[in-house]
Write a structure and sequence with these properties.
heterodimer, A: four-stranded antiparallel β-sheet, 4 strands, about 70% helix, B: about 240 residues, six-stranded mixed β-sheet, 7 helices, globular
Chain lengths: ~300, ~240
C-alpha cells in the first residue's frame, strides 16, 4: 500500500494570523455585503450634510458675533429736520472725541432711504414720513452694557433725541437660534453615527447567523476569536470604504449645491456661513470615522457572539 | 503501563447534562495515552457523540475534571483553547464541510487556520486528496460530491495537520468496505507516528481490523471498563520496559 501522504509532514503548527484574502474567502461576499455599502453611503452622505451644515452655522455665528460685538447704532428720533440734523452733528462730535470709539459714520439720507426701501418702498422721503438720523458706531472693544450706558449719558447732554443700542442686542435672538441649530446639527451627526453603528451591528449579527456553521468549523479547527473577527472586519472594511467614498461624493455634492443656493441670496448674514479649507478637511474625514466605527462595531459584535461559544 | 507514557486525555468523574435534564454522561473516567488506538462503541443514544464533543472541546462538562495534553481544560481560559484544538483532528458525523469552499480549500482549512503559507500547503493538500481518491475532485464543492466523497474530504481535513489526537465519529459510515479499510489503514499509519486515535463506530468488523486497539464501551451514558484497561492499558507487543 502506498505510504499515506501525512508521513511527509510539511505542516508546522503555529499561531500566525489567519487573515487577508484567505480569511475573507471563508465568507461568501454576497452574504455579508448585501445592502451594507449603500446603507453606509447614505449614512455618510447625511453625516457630511449635517456636519457641513453645522460647520457653516458655526462660522456664521462666529463671524456675525465678531462683527456685531463692537458695533452700536445711534438713532436721532426727532421730527424736526433741523433739530435732528443739529443733534446728529453734535452726537458725531461727542462720539468722535471718545477714546473708546474707533469710528463714527453718519449715514446720509440716501443711505437711510435705501435701508428702509424694502419696508417703505422706493421714494420714501422726509416730507411724507420723518426718518431718524442713523449713526453707525464702532468701538475699539466689545460694546458691553457699561460702555453703552456711558455713551447714552454723554449723548443725552448734546442730543436729547438720541437712542443708542448695541448691534449685538438686536441680533442676539437670531444668533441664539443659529447657535442652537448648530448644536442640533452636531447632535444629528452623533445620532447618524449611532444609527450607522446599529446598522453594522445588525448586519454583523445577521452575517454571524448566516455563517454560523462556517464559524463553528473554523472555531473547532483551532481558529481563535481574533482570526474569525478579522474575517468579518475585512468584509465590513471593504463595504465601508466603498460606501464611505460614495457617501462623501454625494454629501459633498449636496453641501456645494446648498452653498451655491444660499450664496445666491446675497445676504450679508448668510455670506458669513461659508466653509473654509479646514471645514472641507473635516468633511473629508467623515468617511474615515464611518469606516472606523463600522470596523470596530463589527469586531465587537463578532467577539461578543464568539465569547458565548466555548 | 510504560512509565514514559503520559496521558493525552484524562477524564475524572465527568458528567454532562443539557439544562436541567438528566445526565447524558455520568461518572466518566478514563485515560487516553499517546500512540494508542481506541474504538468508542455503544448503541445509538448511548452518549458517544456527546463524549466526542467533550474530547474535541466543543462542550464543557457539567461536572468532573478533564486534563488534556497536560493541562486542566476546565479551568483554562477560553482564549487558550484554540491552541489545544489545533492539536486535534476531528471527523464529524455530519462531515461539516464548508459549503462554498472547494474540496481542496476544505482540506486546506486547518493548515490555513494554523498559518501555513500557501506555497507550503499546496503539496500536502494535493497528496492528501490523491490518497483519499479525490484528486480529480479538488475543485468540486461539497454539494456536488457524494456522501462517501464528502466523508473522505472530511477525513482528509482531519488528518492533514498530522494531529496529536484524531477524533472520528463514524468515519466509515458512508464509504464502501475497500475505502473503509483504506481509511483505517491511514488512521493506523497516523497512530504509528504517535497520534492517539479515537474512532466512534458500530462496525465490529472495523474494530477487528485493528487488533491492538482498546475498546471504550458506552451504555446509557456510562463507560464500561471492567478490566481497568482504559485507566491502565496493557503494554503493546514490542513496547519497551
Amino acid at each position: 500500500m502506498k505510504k499515506p501522504p501525512v508521513m511527509a509532514r510539511a505542516v508546522e503548527r503555529g499561531l500566525s494570523p489567519f487573515r487577508g484574502k484567505r480569511a475573507a474567502h471563508l465568507l461568501p461576499r454576497a452574504r455579508l455585503g448585501g445592502p451594507m455599502p449603500w446603507v453606509i453611503a447614505i449614512m455618510v452622505a447625511l453625516t457630511v450634510l449635517a456636519t457641513g451644515g453645522g460647520l457653516a452655522l458655526a462660522n456664521l455665528v462666529d463671524r456675525a458675533s465678531g462683527d456685531l460685538a463692537g458695533g452700536a447704532t445711534v438713532q436721532i428720533v426727532e421730527a424736526d429736520r433741523a433739530k435732528r440734523s443739529a443733534q446728529a452733528q453734535a452726537a458725531v462730535a461727542v462720539l468722535s472725541d471718545d477714546p473708546a470709539v474707533a469710528s463714527v459714520s453718519l449715514l446720509s439720507d440716501g443711505q437711510v432711504e435705501a435701508l428702509l426701501e424694502p419696508w417703505l418702498g422706493a421714494g420714501a422721503s422726509d416730507e411724507s414720513l420723518p426718518l431718524p438720523s442713523l449713526i453707525d458706531l464702532r468701538f475699539r472693544d466689545e460694546a458691553d452694557e457699561e460702555l453703552i450706558e456711558r455713551m447714552r449719558g454723554r449723548l443725552a447732554r448734546v442730543a436729547p433725541a438720541a437712542r443708542i443700542d448695541a448691534q449685538s442686542t438686536w441680533l442676539a435672538p437670531v444668533l441664539r437660534a443659529l447657535s442652537t441649530l448648530r448644536w442640533v446639527a452636531f447632535g444629528l451627526v452623533l445620532l447618524l453615527a449611532f444609527t450607522g453603528a446599529a446598522a453594522v451591528w445588525l448586519a454583523a449579527r445577521n452575517a454571524l447567523g448566516t455563517n454560523r456553521d462556517t464559524i463553528e468549523i473554523v472555531h473547532l479547527l483551532g481558529g481563535n476569536d481574533n482570526q474569525i473577527a478579522r474575517i468579518f472586519q475585512r468584509s465590513i472594511l471593504l463595504d465601508a470604504i466603498g460606501g464611505g467614498a460614495l457617501g462623501l461624493v454625494m454629501g459633498s455634492g449636496a453641501v456645494i449645491l446648498m452653498g451655491a443656493q444660499f450664496a445666491a441670496l446675497d445676504s450679508g448674514l448668510v455670506a458669513g456661513g461659508g466653509l473654509g479649507t479646514t471645514d472641507w478637511v473635516i468633511l473629508a474625514t467623515v468617511p474615515l470615522f464611518a469606516v472606523a466605527i463600522a470596523v470596530y462595531t463589527a469586531r465587537m459584535t463578532v467577539l461578543s457572539s464568539l465569547g458565548r461559544m466555548l | 503501563m510504560n512509565d514514559a507514557e503520559s496521558e493525552v486525555v484524562q477524564f475524572d468523574n465527568v458528567g454532562l447534562r443539557y439544562g436541567t435534564d438528566r445526565e447524558i454522561l455520568s461518572n466518566i473516567s478514563f485515560t487516553l495515552f499517546p500512540g494508542r488506538f481506541y474504538f468508542l462503541t455503544g448503541a445509538s443514544g448511548a452518549g458517544k457523540t456527546s463524549l466526542l464533543k467533550l474530547l474535541y472541546l466543543a462542550q464543557r462538562p457539567s461536572r468532573g475534571a478533564i486534563r488534556m495534553f497536560g493541562s486542566d481544560i476546565i479551568t483554562l481560559p477560553r482564549d487558550r483553547l484554540p491552541a489545544y484544538r489545533r492539536r486535534m483532528g476531528v471527523v464529524f458525523q455530519d462531515f461539516r464541510l464548508v459549503d462554498h469552499l472547494s474540496a481542496f480549500d476544505n482540506v486546506a482549512l486547518p493548515l490555513r487556520v494554523s498559518g501555513v503559507r500557501e506555497a507550503d500547503l499546496q503539496g500536502p493538500v494535493t497528496d492528501m486528496l490523491e490518497w483519499v481518491g479525490l484528486a480529480h475532485r479538488a475543485d468540486a464543492r461539497p454539494a456536488t460530491l457524494s456522501g462517501g466523497e464528502q466523508q473522505r474530504v472530511a477525513i482528509a481535513r482531519a488528518v492533514i495537520g498530522r494531529p496529536d489526537m484524531l477524533v472520528a465519529d463514524e468515519p466509515t459510515g458512508n464509504v464502501d468496505p475497500e475505502m473503509a479499510l483504506k481509511l483505517i489503514r491511514l488512521f493506523e499509519a497516523l497512530n504509528r507516528l504517535g497520534t492517539t486515535v479515537v474512532v466512534a463506530t458500530h462496525d465490529v468488523h472495523l474494530i477487528r481490523k485493528v487488533p491492538d486497539s482498546l475498546i471504550m464501551r458506552l451504555d446509557k451514558g456510562t463507560l464500561f471498563d471492567p478490566t481497568g484497561a482504559l485507566r491502565y492499558p496493557p503494554r503493546r507487543v514490542g513496547a519497551g520496559t
